[in-house]
Amino acid sequence: MRPSRAAYPIRWRVMDILEQVAGKLWPRSFSAGLPYLMLLPALLLVGVLVWGLVEIGDSSLRTLDTSTFLMSENYTLANYQRALSERFFTTVAGRSLMGSLIVTVVTLIFAFPYSYLMVRTQSSALRKFLLVALFLPFFIGQVVRAYGWLIILGNQGMVNEALGLVGVTPIRLLYNYPAVLFGLVQYMLPFAVLMLAPAMTAIPAELESAASSLGANWISSFRHIVLPLSKPGLVGAGLVVFTLSLTDFAIPAILGGGSQDFIANAIYDQFFRTSDQGMGATLSLLLVAVGSILVGLVFMVFGAGTLAMGGDRK
Amino acid sequence: MSAAPAGVPQQETAAAAAVSVKRVSKVFGDVHAVREASFDLPKGRFLTILGPSGSGKTTLLRMIAGFDAPTEGDIYIGGQPVKAVPPHKRAIGMVFQKLALFPHMTAAENVAFPLKMRRHDARTIPEKVERYLELVRLGGYGKRRIDELSGGQQQRVAIARALVFEPDLLLLDEPLAALDRKLREEMQLEFRRIQKELGVTTINVTHDQREALVVSDEIVVMDGGEIQQMAQPVHTYRTPANAFVANFIGVTNFLEGSVVETSNEAIALSVGGMRVKGVAGGTAKVPAQGELAAGALRAEQIRIAPTVQGFSGLANVVSGEVRDAIFEGERIVYEVVVPELGGAVLRVFDHDAESHQQFGPGDSVALGWNAKDMYIFKK
Amino acid sequence: MSNQKFLSAQIKRRTLLKSMAAAGAAAGASTLGLNRAFAQEPEKPAEIIVRAWGGSWVDALKAGVSDSFTKATGIAVRHDLTEDNEIQPKVWAAVAQKRVPPIHINWDTTTNATKSALRGVTEDLSDLPNLKNTTDLSKPVGLDGYPIVNTYGYVYVLAFRPEAFPNGAPKSWNDLLDPKLKGRIALYNDGIGFHFPAQVAGGGKLEDIPANMQPAWDFITKIKAQQPLLGEDPDFTTWFQRGEIDAACTISTNAREAKKNGINIDWVVPEEGAKFDTDGLWIPKGLPENELYWAKQYINHALTKEAQQVWLDGLGLPGVVPGLTPPADLVGDPSYPTTEEDFKHLIRISTKVQVENESQWFAKFKEIMQG
After folding, report:
1. What angle do CA C129, C135, C140 make, to 5 degrees?
2. Could you tell me which of C22, C34, C87, C178 has the fewest CB atoms within 10 Å of its CB?
3. pLDDT per residue as tens digits for the range C125-153
4. Is A69 within a domain?
5. Are residues C66 and C206 in the same domain?
6. Which of A122, A123, A149 is nearest to A137 (CA)?
7. Is the residue at C336 inside a domain?
8. pLDDT of residue B352
9. Chains that touch C (3 or more CB pairs under 8 A)
């Protein structure tokens, strides 16, 4: 008996005990249920989200009584009517949608060559540099970065100082729509690159060699091969950039000088400035609806596999 | 492509060949991938560059295709130096290792791609595409997506795409490596058929000696970045230029010993004390008496029998003991320990289906071979 | 704050402390005021939490009220710098769910505090003994009792950089329409403080508020063409310091802060008048009995002359206790109204009207500015 004991290491014993305990807690006959158990935390989170949405939905149907500052007892669609008819809300919604669209297009245009170079470059030093340059802003929060732009682009900022050296009087570079879009593009670029890079890595370099041997110059090769095959990445990146821009708060608030509100700023005002939770809830729901419809449309047009990065591609 | 620089000395000789490689070297960092490679390939011939991985064969091919530039030396295609010609302006069709078919296009769109890129008349394209799909026996498959085709069908699309624009030169970069054996052998014959049908000059790269023997008009064997031998398949096999080629192609036994006698081509080695007769192999200098040398002997050149009876005409006769017998279907491979040769183990093929003579491990056997079948190379 | 004053405040605080101890010994916290026997004094919490505005605002509160309160009672004061607009829904939610609210005392604008009072989430403060020593300003208008106590008033002045006005200080809000000032003026992002003077500057009457504010909207539309920056309290100080703006409608305290930091800033009450409003302190419902008691003591303490003097010296604002000495730099300043005459130039609109209509005014202002 003794030699066999010695041959059975302590670690194995510990594992045996652990297995026994696990067997008691989760008998083998339950094993089919294990995947569902794993799913539970996610379901719980989604459940909380849905519950929150229901609560917000309830609020959105109540109006604010300014004589008591309580929400009305009865349900009404007045908030929705206001949201869809008042010029302020339509202006802000239009600005957000248009801005997000512009930001998405510009960001993708910038992110595309960046990711391409990062994925294809032979030089590991250049790749590392591009990666560091990409990740560095991630360690600096959005708000800090926006304040950075205030310092750089302000009337007494570096850019205007430089312009001053060549005799240009200070120009107002901040607190306008282009400044907000600029800030958003700068903020979104890493997201887009990170979404695009895997899609580009999935395009074998051999395809481009093949296109070249078949008579395609780099423009044709880009247009007929790289671009169409990057579509999943472009769609995914576009979706992420668009929805993040559409729902952004800090950049319009800080770089917009108060007159370039996006939807999130309007929602903030309703909740925290005018104490109108009903209106705030309504705008939130409409924003969720616009986002969902958009994602749904993209899925319908490009297929739900788009965001899964097209695993079936060789 | 028009104005070839004047005063290139090799120009006239190069013009005769479809492809001419002149002392081409390629250095990556401190790695000499290709070292002074030279060969001429006449028009319409099928050349295979054969070598183990890392031998520089793919690098040489990529330089011919224009994806890499030679560090030294020049490449001529159709008599013109191509140093300054980018890949998309060289009239070269290429089939890639992983085929590199465009996954977002149909078979027909893949085949049409080079025609569109080369601005062929759009009206003639569908007809040409269909003709080439038929050439590779894929008529009617044009509308299929690439992932709806089998591995062999994808190969055929890749070939059609590389040939449809009637290139001067077809390059094959180990496209068959990933296929299973049966399909690979089928495709080898297919390559050969199509190449003969179109007469297109072809350079194939492979590490598969069988493929090289089957499909090629010429074989270039490469190792360590250097060309070891360029010859027709039968010569490559029968008269290897050196020990490497002998070893790389076919199943070869090597018997090492010192030279005890040389007279003309005939050389005798002392292997484990026994005198073994062979002939000088390759083009290198014949080893002198007392020098170390190796005799290369193909497994199928050795005869095997229970006794030495009937081996009277053979220059070399030894006896040994079967260590292992491997049944490979059309042949049996014996591993025989020969004490007379210092305990050397010889591999022997036995195709003799008539005799039904099967030996088992432990059986005593006699082996014999001709002196002309053993090539002796200097060590 | 001058050294002299600091010393006197110190002394005052010390006398306060002495009398506190004496009162305690005499079995009656008479300085703190409530007529309770010492034995019945509720258990002291380790700390009380006061929501405050950051920067110079919280510094002033700490120096004037919190530090002396801690000295007197031993109860630490923690300042919670959550934005007033953000603490409001949290407090409302806590009261609605019968939880203990996240703060003991909210330092709030009277308008926002009134919203909370209307909603019924505030404790009644009528029994604070020091209320009897205060001016009318401390009493919220249009509410029963003291659900909030106003602690000082302030003026939304027209602050400006004198270099930008070489011909002398602006006299009218209309001076903001000077093309030179395009992109160089700033307002609060909901327009607070600007609606009423705009009504006058636009040719309307204050009596028409809230029924007809078209003149205000017309004037604000003209201002919009000047591309104003829109921000919050800290933004104005920053913008003046960074040279982003030449003029702003802001609370005098922000302009004074920039001036203290060495920026050349001045301010006026233009001929149309400037909005006068008050801030106050209130206690949310739902606190444990003893914490409520000490929270009330804190507010009561904030109404002492000594506390008001130091606190409001810091803010540069007029308090609600008679006999305070104005800071030297603000004697006779229009943003520090003390006399009947001073108040004539200021616009005061009833809290009730403001509370009921503010949302609409904000929305209208935003609609014009975001257009």
Report:
1. 85
2. C22
3. 999 999 999 998 999 887 888 999 999 99
4. no
5. no
6. A149
7. no
8. 65
9. A
